[in-house]
Amino acid sequence: MPVTNVSHDIDSRTLTITAKFDAPVERIWQIYADPRQLETIWGPPTYPATFVEHSLEPGARVTYYMTSPEGEKFAGYWVIRTVDAPTEFTFDDGFADDEFNPVESLPVSYNVYRFRAEGGRTVATYTSTYETAEGLQKVLEMGVVEGASSAINQIDALLAA
Question: Which domain of life does this protein belong to (predicted)?
């Protein structure tokens, strides 16, 4: 399994997941840069993602939804802040309604995704910082650790394909 560590800190409002992949940084970057590849790993395995809008450019808005086994759709959005291909991108990540408008009652996180080469492999660090400790606590209760970990763990299968 790629995920090697998961930690959260209510005081700093952060959730950090570390993973290692048997692939170069550029290959891992491609997964996030290509919406069709990203669809295969974004969200838990039983909630496949569909990216409607996708561009890893500063200021771009990325929209997507995940579909439950029962057919229910859960929408989300990113607002891309910075891009330093192929090693890092930052973005705000939020929950959205069916028309991709932000759901104000749910937390937004600021995310830093970093990819670092280590002996022919890639170490990925995914850090999410929430505006409030309550926001972090809410997503923890919603299962973000299990959902994000199972999503990241799908990357090995994509790399093997």
Answer: Bacteria
